[in-house]
Amino acid sequence: MPSRFQAEFTAQLKRYYTVYTGGFLSFVVLVGVLEMLGIPNRALGYLFLFATILLYAGIGFMAKTAEVSEYYVAGRRVPAVFNGMATGADWMSAASFIGLAGTLYTAGYDGLAFVMGWTGGYCLVALFLAPYLRKFGQFTIPDFLGARYGGNVPRTIGVLAVVLCSFTYVIAQISGVGLITSRFTGLEFGIGVFVGLAGILVCSFLGGMKAVTWTQVAQYIILIIAYMIPVVWLSVKHTGSPVPQITAYTSALPKVTALEKEFNDSSTPKGAAEESVRVIYRERAEAAAAKLKALEAGGAAFLAEEKAKLEARMMELKAAEVPDPRAIDAAERAVISFPIDPAAARAVWNRDSGIGAKAAPVKAHAEAFAATGKTPEEVEANRTKAKKNFLALVFCLMVGTAALPHILMRFYTTPSVKEARRSVFWSLLFIFLLYFTAPALAILVKFEVYHNLVGTAFTELPAWVWNWAAVDKTLMAISDINKDGIVQLAEITIGGDLIVLATPEIAGLPYVISGLVAAGGLAAALSTADGLLLTIANALSHDVYYKMIDPNAPTTRRLVVSKALLLVVALTAAYVTSLKPGNILFLVGAAFSLAAAAFFPSLLLGIFWKRANKLGAVLGMLMGLGITIYYMVQTYEFFGINAPLWWDIKPISAGIFGIPLGFLGVIVGSLISRAPSREIQELVDHVRYPNLEGDTSPVAT
């Protein structure tokens, strides 16, 4: 596109999105007025969610296209600043919007691994991949693998890896959509997943990457406004300053640290109350461990004996001179809920034996690699494990960022290589706005919980506790463990996925802010889900159907196949999500490890090492991906194998084993087989030395 027309196009986009931003802010004010007029909260929740989905649907409809380049790469005319916003929205998924502050809330300092890894990964993208892939042109990452390494085998492995890591990632996004939809509309989680799926499809079904790009720009505007307003409000409430990124550390964090010390000091009233709960947790964990040991020895006979004891206790309570209804009710529930067979008992008692973790002292939020243990040696060993996992996670997230197909595809949409480099800068800036704020939000919410929720009478619990407990007990649960009628910190279970969405309610802000945050979370999840589903469908339709099955397929048929596959993949992902295979942040982290092990060695060496060839790429991708999948399946609790960890590395960082193995496979495979052809080496030269001012045409077919 000539520069004059590109400049006019950019100016037109700026006008459109300025009007759009003003309109959205006016809509938020209107909903606030409706709340003041007494409109029910549930109605406002529906209004927020469905109004934003209709907005995205409208953009998707207006951007419908039957052009291949428009559908796959938005016509390669997205200006750098807008591509940066779209990439930011594509990047800041449910994991960033919903999960990041929640992880920092639960993990404290250790949660910064996500911030460091994801941010650092964009440096790798800018330096090693984005400009070179844009110079290559074409449509997908398997396209590059097929052209660079020759033949359909590398392309096929690339497609399988794209589907695997993108599918894992999209499950996390749809999970976030289901969580938001179920909380703010009252629908059951499984139904909410499929309702949210409709919002995902309307953005990408008609216009492909063109529709997704312009929708993602709109979604970024919504999500960043939604994220900033409540944290600034909370900062003003607690510190009197509208700059939470500074005052959270200078004002709120010292107070949080002081409260943590008080909770851990059993000589203080708060510490004594906390210790009374921890003692009960320890006793329960020890009892469960003893039962597990006895079950292994006695089997079904031990199980029958234990149930008989509970039944005898229930009859004894009923026969007492002055029956205690509460005690009888508890005894009856214990009998009814008793495991029916050894397998069920093993599952229940394994879970109960793990409750001993709640007996540990409060983890200091600001302490690096905080660890606990019965002896100084055990504490130091646990601290070493925390350090290893922190560094492994940072490494996997950095490399995974530079290898995620749906992110790398975004750099195919810019007008030139120069714009691709600039769009990386804008992406980092727009992502920075949220990442710089998330740690502050975690601190402010933690102070709110420590200061206002802990110490509250159970009869006076705020409404948000019951609202979120009704959505998912793993996200919000409070039990009076020591029966004193007062909430202790150890009695509170808060899932990380709740923190951001519940922040307005926790802080006592108007419901309009809750709806705004829900709309922001939905925008984050939808934007990434759109990009991921499109990446999967495009890989299957373009790289499998068009490149390998029917190279003569007309444009219309290619787009029909892509849309049909998009629908099938979306429905499959929604079904898998309804099974709740894991928390949002783990699923996203797993996708990064898979992408890093599968793609990074073959992409990097394919660009910077002419000797890399087909056998090397095949071995590298298979070895890297294979060991990563094997380790995750063996160690992640969802699969039920529970094999020992290798060097104490958690399954989310499985890529730490796959990445070096991938490099080894590419290098060894390339050295033991013939060098690439002259044409391939010329392709490498062409990609390596781009003309930054232009030369935007694809170089491979």
Q: Helical proportion?
A: over 70%
Q: What is the beta-strand fraction?
A: under 5%
SSE arrangement, N to C: HHHHHHHHHHHHHHHHHHHHEEHHHHHHH
The termini sit apart by 21 Å
Largest sheet: spatial strand order: 1-2
**Helix/strand/pairing category:** mainly alpha
Shape: globular
What does this structure look like?
The structure is a single chain. By secondary structure, this protein is an all-alpha fold. The protein is 74% helix and 1% strand. It is built from 27 helices and two strands. Strands 1-2 form a two-stranded antiparallel ribbon.
Write the layout of secondary structure elements.
Elements (H helix, E strand, L loop, with lengths): L2 H34 L4 H22 L5 H6 L6 H12 L2 H14 L4 H25 L4 H9 L2 H34 L3 H16 L3 H32 L4 H21 L4 H30 L1 H19 L6 H12 L5 H12 L22 H26 L3 H4 L8 H19 L2 H16 L9 H9 L4 E3 L13 E3 L4 H8 L4 H39 L5 H24 L5 H25 L5 H22 L19 H17 L6 H11 L13
Antiparallel strand pairs: 1-2
Helix pairs in contact: 1-10, 1-22, 2-9, 2-10, 2-22, 4-10, 4-18, 4-22, 5-19, 5-22, 6-16, 6-18, 6-27, 7-8, 8-9, 8-22, 8-23, 8-24, 8-25, 9-22, 9-23, 10-11, 10-19, 10-22, 11-12, 11-19, 12-13, 12-15, 13-14, 16-24, 19-21, 21-22, 22-23, 24-25, 24-26, 25-26
Can you tag this structure with a few keywords?
701 residues; mainly alpha; two-stranded antiparallel ribbon; 74% helix; 1% strand
